[in-house]
Specification:
- The complex is a heterodimer.
- In chain A, helix 3 links the parallel strand 2 (73-79) and strand 3 (109-112).
- Chain A contains nine helices and 17 strands.
- The radius of gyration of chain A is 22 Å and the shape is globular.
- In chain A, helix 2 packs across helix 3 and helix 7 packs across helix 8 (278-288).
- In chain A, 28% of the residues lie in helices and 19% in strands.
- Chain B is elongated and about 85 Å long.
- Chain B has helices spanning 30-36, 113-117, 131-140, 149-161, 217-241, 251-265, 280-288, 292-317, and strands at 12-21, 46-48, 54-56, 60-67, 77-89, 93-102, 123-126, 178-186, 194-199, 204-211.
- Chain B is built from eight helices and ten strands.
- Chain B is an alpha+beta fold.
- In chain B, 34% of the residues lie in helices and 23% in strands.
- The chains are: A alpha/beta, B alpha+beta.
- At the A-B interface, helix 4, strand 12 and helix 9 of A face strand 2, strand 4, strand 5, helix 2 and helix 4 of B.
- Chain A: This is SCO2522 family protein.
- Chain A: It comes from Streptomyces marokkonensis.
Chain lengths: 328, 322
């Protein structure tokens, strides 16, 4: 059949999607709470000394998968300024960058966690990446789902299967023998590891996103899969100033500290993290597995990585890898 | 099949279109329409201004894992996502569509969810797909425990209707909602597209399409939405004109019926506005029999004639104008 040739187009009727530059891998070399910084520069130095050999190993591994190209790996560090703000950027950042350098590591990009919740967008508007991702959740249906289920946008909880049916609390009603039914992981191999994730909490009309959900947004940002009305989101801002401001909100959400750094967004990610983040990152996998990413960003990554002969897993959750070393 | 996006060569596509008057006094301007249909903050609402103003929401996916409807009672499990969206024509008529397509080959078991998310709007059968039984079963309607596409379309409408800051829920006329349930299968090589449109009771219509295999399912969705819109317009106007009194005493009552039709509906007739060129033959067949445009033209002419007559009559009644 002949394709019909368009004779009339309207740009307002066609979606436009910005392309991004891509590294092969985005390497996260730490994610610390404000409390960790309070322990002083030795604590930071120990952190980066522990991360260093793993960072080298990950870098070498990327190189081994590329026939002729030089591996493009960018490093990043996420600062938690969303849940607590004990110190100011001008106090916290210089010792952090020094500690990394002392261990032979360069922080190419520095990001603020609150940028995953609210960040400046184009034309002086604000973008809300977490809210956008929440609207992109398409829940994995447990068997028997025929199209009617309360959406996650109303409950604020996302699971990897079927929850235990609600129990009657009155003992008198329980005499009928309403037996407890276990929850069930949809993709279980034999036995379940059921996980139910709180995406946000609300107090006095204020919504606070959970660490697990913001970490999921952070992965999607690094993977270059988010857009806001077709435009890039949290694009890095070059930062060559000698100093840092005294207010976190005066810092862009993602800073490029190293002018020679490979692109911030990457085909795949690796995060070297303290083991206490293991449950959070399990939740991240479950969230990423249920985010419907726009076709066009997926296509861009598939095309570019394909032309470089770099294998990228089809599933978004499988594009994130982790190292949880002893000593962190 | 492409790596991402909708399967361009499914064997069957099915869906349901719900059409109703937007529950608000005045038609929405483009700005309000875009706000109403912004179902996701990060994705643009598409606006087309020619040949009429047409605003389309982003596509929303609903995950399902359940038996497909069949008329033989055969149980065929399918897993995947049903796509749905809403569209607003000239700020006045709202449509919600839920649809899915099915590939020729299923899988032997349920895959990881990511497999389905890169095939938006596709349901992948687990096992064999009895095509005829599915098409007939789908047109028969929803049965408990089976796939419920109508309720997915309905939930899109409900979500939009809840936006009370934009909608005042005081429509200028009453009009019954309609549902168009449709199926599309492939034609044999070299055959022309064909269709069977059935107008049932209680606002239910069905459309059985045979389409050339190269045509994407979105083309069928576009055709069904156009057909549903024009069928709804014709049904609504015909119902209003049915039993219209002709006596001179009823002038004001008649004007109360005719005026909202002129204010809100008469300019909406725009057949083939966005129908894929290949599918125009399907529309042309419907123009032959039963002849929708002929009937619409007759109704529109009647409304204008009635208004002209009443205007003359009312002028004659005003004292001092003889």
């Amino acid at each position: 059949m002949n394709e019909s040739v368009p004779t009339f187009r309207e740009t307002s009727a066609e979606p436009r999607v910005e392309s991004l530059p891509f590294s092969h891998l985005s390497l996260e070399i730490g994610h610390l709470y404000m409390e960790d910084f309070a322990e002083g520069p030795d604590r930071l130095r120990r952190h980066f000394d522990t991360v260093r050999p793993w960072a080298d190993a990950v870098r070498n591994d990327v190189g081994a998968h590329l026939a002729d190209a030089r591996p493009r790996v960018s490093t990043c560090f996420l600062i938690d300024d969303y849940f607590s703000r004990l110190t100011t950027p001008d106090e916290l950042l210089p010792p952090l960058i020094d500690a990394a350098a002392g261990a032979g590591l360069t922080i190419d990009y520095l990001a603020r966690e609150s940028g995953c919740a609210v960040a400046p967008g184009a034309d002086r508007t604000l973008v809300r990446p977490a809210e956008s991702v929440m609207h992109r959740l398409v829940e994995s249906p447990p068997p028997g789902s025929s199209g009617f289920r309360p959406p996650v946008s109303r409950t604020g909880w996302l699971s990897n299967g079927r929850r235990t049916p609600a129990q009657r609390s009155s003992a008198a009603l329980d005499t009928a023998g309403a037996a407890w039914q276990p929850p069930r992981e949809t993709d279980a191999r034999g036995h379940s590891v059921f996980l139910d994730i709180e995406l946000w909490s609300e107090a006095e009309g204020e919504r606070t996103w959970s660490c697990a959900f913001l970490a999921s947004v952070w992965q999607l940002v690094r993977l270059g899969l988010l857009r806001d009305n077709g435009r890039a989101l949290l694009a890095p801002t070059p930062w060559d100033d000698a100093g840092f401001p005294t207010d976190w909100d005066a810092l862009p959400p993602v800073l490029r500290l190293n002018p020679r750094a490979a692109p911030f967004t990457a085909y795949v990610t690796c995060s070297v993290l303290p083991r206490r983040f293991l449950p959070v990152e399990h939740a991240v996998r479950v969230v990423l597995d249920q985010v419907h990413v726009e076709d066009e960003p997926l296509r861009q990554v598939a095309e570019r990585s394909g032309s470089e002969g770099f294998a990228v897993p089809a599933g978004v959750a499988d594009r994130a890898s982790y190292v949880f070393p002893l000593g962190l | 099949m492409s790596r991402t996006g909708r399967d361009p060569h499914p064997v069957i596509a099915c869906g349901e279109v719900r059409t109703c008057l937007l529950p608000t006094r005045d038609a929405l301007d483009e700005r309000a329409a875009v706000k109403l249909l912004r179902l996701r903050p990060d994705e643009r609402v598409r606006v087309s201004r020619h040949p009429n103003r047409y605003v389309v929401s982003p596509e929303v996916l609903t995950g399902v894992d359940c038996p497909l409807p069949t008329d033989t009672g055969a149980r065929v499990r399918a897993v995947g996502t049903v796509g749905s969206h809403a569209s607003l024509v000239e700020g006045r008529v709202i449509q919600a569509t839920a649809s899915f397509s099915l590939p020729a080959v299923g899988t032997d078991r349920r895959q990881a969810w990511s497999y389905y998310l890169v095939r938006p709007g596709s349901l992948v059968p687990v096992g064999q797909l009895p095509q005829r039984a599915l098409v007939r079963g789908f047109l028969l309607g929803h049965r408990p425990g089976r796939l419920d596409v109508g309720s997915i379309a309905e939930s899109v409408l409900a979500r939009i209707s809840r936006q009370d800051r934009i909608l005042d829920h005081d429509p200028p006329l009453t009009a019954a909602d309609t549902r168009l349930r449709w199926t599309a299968v492939r034609t044999a090589a070299g055959e022309e597209p064909s269709s069977l449109f059935t107008k049932g009771e209680d606002g239910l219509r069905t459309l059985e399409l045979s389409l050339p295999s190269g045509l994407p399912p979105t083309a069928a969705v576009g055709l069904c939405e156009e057909l549903a819109l024009h069928d709804w317009l014709l049904t609504t106007v015909a119902d209003k004109l049915d039993g219209l009194p002709t006596g001179a005493a009823d002038d004001r009552a008649v004007l109360r019926v005719l005026r909202p039709l002129v204010d809100h509906l008469l300019h909406l007739w725009m057949p083939r506005a966005r129908v894929d060129r290949v599918l125009q033959t399907v529309w042309n067949q419907l123009e032959e029999t039963p002849g929708y445009s002929r009937q619409w033209t007759a109704h529109a002419q009647r409304i204008r004639d009635q208004l002209a007559l009443r205007a003359i009559h009312l002028r004659d009644e005003v004292p001092g104008r003889r």
